[in-house]
Every structure is written in structure tokens, then in C-alpha cells.
Amino acid sequence: MKRICYLLIGLLLFSFWESNVYAKTLTISEVKEEFDDFIENSLNEYGMSLTTTIDSENNKLDIYNGTEKYLSFKYTDDYIEYEDRDTLIAIETADSSFGTLLVIGGVLQSILNLSGYEDYELNIDDNVDMSTLYNDYGIAAETEEYEFHDENSHISGDYIRYFKISLNTDKIDALVAKYGYKEPEEPVISKITITASDILENSIVLFPKMEFTTEVDENYVRECYVYRSKSEDGTYEKISNVLVNCSGEVGLKDENLASGVTYYYKATSEDGAVSSEVIKVTTKDTTTNDKKPVNTGMFFPAIGAAFMALGAIILYTSSKKKVKFNRI
Predict the structure, then answer these.
(1) Tell me, what's the pLDDT at 186?
(2) Phi-psi bin for 104: left (phi > 0), alpha (psi -120 to 50), beta?
(3) Verdict on whether the full-model pTM lies above 0.70
(4) What is the domain class of 189-282 according to CATH?
(5) Tens digits of per-residue pLDDT, 202-255?
(6) Mutual orientation of helices 28-41 and 91-114 as an angle, nearest 10°?
(7) Based on CB atoms within 10 Å of each CB, which residue in 167, 178, 189, 215 is the most buried?
(8) What does the alpha-carbon distance between residue 22 and residue 201 come to, in Å, rounded to a whole number?
(9) From CA 92, how far away is CA 143, in angstroms rounded?
(10) Do 109 and 39 touch, CB atoms closer than 8 A?
């Protein structure tokens, strides 16, 4: 009987260990390191100069913008939180709330990344009371709406009063299972082609077309760059500095060209990894003498007049002979 009890206890312990073998509580050092990467690759593109330090004595993760402290997160072994309940919202403080939102979003994304959800985002409906979600899903947030008008601007948004996120990956698993959203993978470009039509003296209409290795929705945005050169192996310059429609159905007009000149075109993906074959197009030459002979309208009447004159002569000659014959 004891052996059976020991066996059951052992099975229960094993099953408990197996269900939690992947469970982990993230450390603040791991979060800081991941967030530093996020700052370098994303946040500092917004003109910020953010750095982080861990204040272990006060259990704080401090965020600096340059030499000035921007905001701080408190942390425990179980969670990390941000709180700003006392600030009076004015135009000046509201203007900085966007940066706060970016930083909090970066911390959240860092924890998602560390939990194995690099490609996921959260999609929580506005009707959900986020202040009540922590026990079940490891996240909580409280915001306050603001709106300001003056003669030159209109500012509105949500001011973050409180944010809390669990460091336990089991909680993050539950959060992603409930509210996680994974962006569909970008389709792989198989090839790009380009054709030309409406070739005039000073303009050409080009139709770049992008194709993929798998079927994509007809509404999927297809964009590319189109380049032009005056020689096949020469320097190619963008016709437009912005991406153009690459569906093959919308034409791109290249204007202000010289007449009778050969141009070379190619289209490439945004990153330049995929390029079309080069096509050769020559504009119409306005100096070519291709005028047809002018029809004066006198040719056939002239022939008719000649025949009429000839007939008159014959009739006159016949008449003279007939008179002479009668006299004999």
C-alpha cells in the first residue's frame, strides 16, 4: 500500500514538474538588457537618447533621456510597475505622455520577447477594464483621457496613470492566449517585372509588377522603386523617391524625357533584394521625316481631261474624213 502511495505522489510531482518545466520568472537584469536593445533599435529613432540603470537599493529601473531622468519603474521579484497618479495634466505634461507611452510599450514588448512572443502584439478592447486583469493575465493599466485646444493645436490622448506587468512567464502565456495577436508573415517576393506603354516623344508610362511565392490577398500593398538610366550598365536613378504601386495595374509616367533617346528601366523591392530585368525603351523621334506625299487631287481629273481631249481629236478627225468621203 505504501508503495502505491509513493508511486502516486511521485506521479503527481512529476506531472507538476512537467507542467511547469518551461515556467520562468524573469529577472530585472534580463528585462533591462532586452529593453536596451529595444531602445537602440526602435525608441531612439524618435529623437530620444534613452539609457537605463538599475537602482537595486530602491528596487527601481530608471530611464534617462540624456542626463535627465525621464521616468522610473518599481520592481519586485514578481512584477514591474509604473505609477504617476499625482501629476496635473496640462498641455506641457500631455505633450510628453506620448514618450511615456513609447517607453511603457517598449518594456511590455521586451517582456513579451523574453517570454517567447517576439512576433506578438496585444489587442485589448477599449471596453475592457484593464485595472482588473492582473490576477488572471498578469497585466494592469489605468489611464485618464485628456483633450486641449488652442489657436494653433489640438491635443488629445490617454495619460497613463498606472501600469503593471508580471515577470512570470505563465502569466504572460495566459495574457497572450487571451489577447495576443500575431501579425501574418510577410509574403516572399518571387519576382518583379516591368513593362512600358504609351511611348511618346517626351514621356513613357511604366507598369512595374510584383509577384510572390504564395498567394496573397488582392488588397495587399505592393510597392517598389523604379529606376532609369541612359545606358544599360550605367548609373540608375530613382524616378520617384517614394515607393510606387507595383501591382502591374497602375502606370507610372516618366516625363520630361528627350525625344529619340533610349532609356533603360528596372524595378526593385524596397530593400533592393529583388530586382526586375532591365528593359530598353526609346522615345519617339520628332526629327524623323516620315511625311507622306501630298495628294493634290489633280491626278485623276488630269487623266480625264487628257482622255476628253484625245476623244475630241478623234471625233474631229473622223468628222473631216467623213466629209471628204461624201464629196467623192
Answers:
(1) 83
(2) alpha
(3) no
(4) mainly beta
(5) 999 999 999 999 888 888 889 999 999 999 999 999 999 999 999 999 999 999
(6) 120
(7) 167
(8) 69
(9) 17
(10) no
Q: Is the pLDDT of residue 114 over 50?
A: yes
How many residues are recorded in the chain?
328
Sequence ranges of the domains in the chain:
22-182, 189-282
* Amino acid letter, residue 321: K
Q: Is pLDDT above 70 for 325?
A: no
DSSP 53-66: EEETTTTEEEEEET
Environment class of 20 (CB within 10 Å of its CB; exposed 0-12, middle 13-18, buried 19+): exposed
Give the pLDDT band (50/70/90) at residue 309.
very low
Residue 15 CA: distances (Å) to CA of 7, 12, 168, 290, 294: 12, 5, 20, 90, 100
As given in the structure block, the three cell numbers for residue 291 are 511625311
Helices (H), the chain: 2-19, 28-41, 91-114, 134-137, 169-179, 299-327
Q: What is the 3-state secondary structure (H, E, C) of 161-229?
A: EEEEEECEHHHHHHHHHHHEEECCCCCCEEEEEEEEECCCCCCEEEEEEEEECCCCCCCCCCEEEEEEE
Set of cell numbers at residue 122: 496585444
Q: Distance of CA 1 to CAs 4, 6, 12, 30, 198, Å?
A: 5, 9, 17, 47, 92
